[in-house]
Structures are given as C-alpha cells and as structure tokens.
Amino acid sequence: MEKVIIVNPDAKMDAKQFAYAPLGPLYIAAVLERDGFECELWDLREDYNSYDNPPKGDIYCITAVTPQIDDMKEVARNIKKKYGDKAYTILGGPHATWLPDDCVDDFDCVVQDEAESIITKICTEKPKGLQRGDRIVDLDTIPHPARHLLPDHRAASTDLWGGYNYESDVIGATLMTSRGCPFACAFCANLQQKTRFRSAENVIEEIELMIDKYDCKHFRFLDDNVIIDKKRFQKLASKLHDLDIRFRCSISSVLVSDEYMELLYYAGCREVGIGFESADDDILELNNKAGNATTDMHRKAVKLIQKWGIQAKVYIITGLPGETDESIEAVKKFIEDVKPDKW
C-alpha cells in the first residue's frame, strides 16, 4: 500500500501554534490508516521541518485556510520539484471548499466539504480536478483522530488550557462531539447545515483514551454549539460528570439558560465562550447573527454564565459590514460594563 504524507501547515497567525492539535488532518489520517494506507504527519509548525524539504511519500494530503494557501501552493510545487509528477497532491479544508477555482491549477486534486467519505477512493484512484465529499451522518463511523502521529506533548498540550495570554501548566486537548451549525452568520466559513452528533458512548471512549494515554483530563470542545440538542447533551453530561473532567466550550447566547448552565457545570464545564461579535444591534442584524441575537441577549448571557460559577468568554469581530468608530467604542464600553472573564 502506498505511503500518505499528511501535511499540516504552520499557523504563524496564531499566538500559540501548538494549542490546538490538527484534528482535521488527523481524522483523514485515521480513515486512511483504517483502510490500509501508511501515514506520516509532516507538521510544518515544527522548526525542524521546512517547506523545501518534503518527506518522501506517494500521496500528499494538504489542508489550508486562506492565510495559508500561498504557502501550501509553494509546498505543492516543492513536492513536485523533488519527487516529480508521480507524487500526487490533494488539497482540502476551508479554502478549497469556498474558493476551489483558486486551487485547481496548483494541486492534482481539490476536495470540497468533508473528505472522510471519499479520501480512500481518491488516494486509490487518484482522480484529477475537483471532488466533493459527502457529509457523514453517522459520525461514530469515523475513527478517532490519529493523535499517535503527533509527539505526546503535541497531542495533549500545556499551551491549550492556559489559552492565549493565559499561562497554565495543565495538560489539555481538543475534541469535537458534533459537526455543523443550524445558524447562518454571514461572516462564518462554516456551511449552514443540520448538526450531526457523535453518540455519548463514542465521545466517552475518546476521552477515556486521552486520559489513559496522556493523563489528560482538561478539554476544549470545538463544537459550534455543544448543547444544541438538549436530550443528547443530558445523556452526555452524566457520563462526563462521572469521568470528573474539566472542559471549555462555545455556545450561542440565545441558548444560554439556567437549566443549560446548571447542566454544563454538572458535566464539568468551567468556561463558556459566546460570539457576541459587536455591541451594535444594527451590525448584528446586518450580519445575520445566530438566532437573531441582540446585545441585550449577550449581556444577560454573560451574567447568567457567571452566576453558575462558569467563566464567561466573549469573542469579538471588528471590521464587520456596518462597522463605525462609534460601534467600536460601543464594544469597549460593553466589555467595561459587562465584565466578562475573558475576551
């Protein structure tokens, strides 16, 4: 079976490059390993790896967000320069999904949307041009991310739990319990879609693996809205409670309630992030903010989160359509008045 090089771009735009393990590429690697391919991770975040010295392989699976695409085009050229046309290059990820025409001339194959459903077929048949993956409905059919391709100190990192500008020596790791978001915020790169969930048992299995292998009991759930399905999260919460873990998550402020906050705290959540984006209701409406959220909803959400002994973190976007000097000042005043724990 051929060897696949999983290419993880560097993330110079991040304050802490190693806070987040590259779950997307690691999911692709897990599927390919399950189906008989040999995989190696070429992690360009590491100083000892360089763009102009790609490891030898038969197939190169590359991902990129828009700030990384020019670098990954250079990587693809270097691969061809060193190994010739027999080296097969695949690009996936957000940039490929939204701007495929910008990519098709630089890679042998460009994959839009989720690739797990077709990556084995692509690596076997090596088609040229644009391919589109189907969204997998039953997420339990996808193997857990191939974290063993990372050094242990990258799979579970002290950079994560401290977060940006917050120091901590606690080992933390990322995971996803669902995919998709029913909202359609105008600024978001996610495709609006029905949320798909992993079973509670499947999530707990992955967490137990992380505890056993890495002694990791602190997590950041990367779901868009981890509590969007109340019945499902109630089942998951009791299992998380039994594991005695601590985690952080993000939810929409329109979902914040006493009932949900009590449930989150019971499950082990100690920080909730909400994307309030702007303190100007006209900007929120113009950008179709999730659930028709308003500044007043955000204000109440922060206070309710804190009421339950959970830290409230708010995410801000400046420069949205409709932004003015006055709206930027309104954000500053919101932070001063509402006093979220982090922003």
TrEMBL record:
Keyword Metal-binding: yes
InterPro entries assigned: BchE-like, Cobalamin-bd, Elp3/MiaA/NifB-like_rSAM, Methyltransferase_Class_B, rSAM, rSAM_horseshoe, rSAM_sf
Keywords assigned: Iron, Iron-sulfur, Metal-binding, S-adenosyl-L-methionine
Domain B12-binding: 3-133
Cofactors, names only: [4Fe-4S] cluster
Name the UniProt record assigns to this protein: Uncharacterized protein
Upper lineage: unclassified sequences, metagenomes, ecological metagenomes
Annotated Pfam families: B12-binding, Radical_SAM
GO molecular function, a single term: catalytic activity
Domain (Radical SAM core) ranges: 167-343
Record has Transcription as a keyword: no
